[in-house]
């Protein structure tokens, strides 16, 4: 019983990682399972966002404050992961923007954003 | 000035892209592309000479120490890749003007060149950087711009191809960044050399294994390793000709470089190939790529699509060389990387010229075109012979190394399979030859003439290069051998 409690405690103490993995897997699942191109992009965005959490969790120190030097504090969070993720967010936004722009053009060209209908129209499913 | 060459290698095309976007008009934008392409070629040639003279160049961006800042690190391996990418760009530049003018709507030509230069900057950046996260950013820079390039194709299917590439490419890049994140948490650094140093202490942990798996799959998506190649044929087939030439010759090659860098320099061949069963997996996928893609290529009706599938197969040869993880095998892989880039650039550029004259690239459009465009078709023919691996051409050199490497490790059956696969190449190339040379000209082809001089010269230059590198192997095979030795020694 005590082992079970300990295991539960271990799992719960890493709850941020569980959230990360859950978001990651559900994002990837949406990309694979949905035929609607906008929904696919939403999934893709979710998948990318989960990676932000992966990095940020690693940079957080319990009890640490924002990394601005102040004599009142001695423990700071690691700033580098935050900087990296700032870049990754920009990349994510750019990807989403390009993706949505493509979907708009596809909608103009085909009159639909459902993958199955588009393949049917082209009749050259690879 | 010369100590800042590594930074200029990336900054010059990036600023060129900005200028091209500002001027907008087709002719000045093209001129900027030409100037930038020649400049990056000169820079990469100077870098290669310096690396050969003085050894590894380490450039600290902004003067920050590599432990906290970004380091650009040029050794013989990426100096070769930089030279390849910039040389291809320089050869494409004169060809691009008329081809782009005929295939891209006029108001978008400035944007086309802008995106093209951003893609160039991204690819050069991946090759030159010694920082894992910086490589991710450049990976996305080159990918996002190539989605835009592909989407500018005239066929509406180009849009769907670009969308599919975006989905697959983003998943690949995200997998890569997850792997890098795990490596970062285990080693506390993003510098490739420092990761390699510190990895020895934590090598057997689960996090490092998972990181390797994520990076392996992520980059495999980008380099179109066999079951993950789904995005490639459509992207190449429907993109504007210039974009196809550029992407086919450079994008997957740079991804392969990144793959080799991680597998050999960062994780180390001893860890990846000796301790883990990567060799059987990679050999199986490579052989599947070689045979599967060649078989599918035989049944295509679109010529560009046929050669795109052929690219998937040829990537199989390169990864096969990497999988053997011996000096000869790696040399074979790298030399095929260089040779295949030149061969495919020649073929796709020739097809671009045909498209310029005929306006279609299906087999029915180009029947009998050989009689109307003999010089272009002969150039494509020579490149195709090199693709098969006929002695006296570049393709023979790389296949020779690969066969020798497989016999060296005692896998004679693998050497046999490589020879057998060349027969499959003969099949689809033969079908192309038959259509082009022996059929009655189609109505579209009957009035076609040779392309203008400025398109013909780059095509002939590339075709001549495939023959030249089949006879004088010092620049390709000699350099590739030194690069292979450097890779196997690792960064440690």
Features:
heterodimer, A: 126 residues, mainly alpha, Helix Hairpins, 5 helices, B: 492 residues, two-stranded antiparallel sheet, globular
Structure description:
The complex is a heterodimer of chains A (126) and B (492). Helices cover 75% and strands 0% of the residues of chain A. Chain A has 126 residues and is mainly α. Chain A is flat and about 65 Å long. Chain B has a domain at 277-492. Helix content of chain B is 79%, strand content 2%. Chain B has helices at 5-23, 26-54, 76-103, 109-128, 132-151, 157-187, 192-202, 206-223, 232-238, 241-275, 278-298, 303-324, 327-358, 374-388, 394-408, 412-438, 443-446, 453-471, 474-489, and strands at 57-60, 71-74. In chain B, helix 1 packs antiparallel against helix 2, helix 6 (157-187) runs antiparallel to helix 8 (206-223) and helix 15 (394-408) packs antiparallel against helix 16. Classes of the chains: A mainly alpha (126), B mainly alpha (492). Chains A and B meet through helix 2, helix 3 and helix 4 of A and helix 5 and helix 6 of B.
Question: How does the SSE layout of this entry go?
Answer:
The complex is a heterodimer of chains A (126) and B (492).
Chain A: H1 2-13, H2 15-33, H3 37-59, H4 79-110, H5 115-122
Helix pairs in contact in A: 2-3, 3-4
Chain B: H1 5-23, H2 26-54, E1 57-60, E2 71-74, H3 76-103, H4 109-128, H5 132-151, H6 157-187, H7 192-202, H8 206-223, H9 232-238, H10 241-275, H11 278-298, H12 303-324, H13 327-358, H14 374-388, H15 394-408, H16 412-438, H17 443-446, H18 453-471, H19 474-489
Helix pairs in contact in B: 1-2, 1-4, 2-3, 2-4, 3-4, 3-10, 3-13, 3-18, 4-5, 4-10, 5-6, 5-10, 6-7, 6-8, 6-9, 7-10, 8-10, 9-10, 9-12, 10-12, 10-13, 11-12, 11-16, 12-13, 12-15, 12-16, 13-14, 13-15, 13-18, 13-19, 14-16, 14-18, 15-16, 15-18
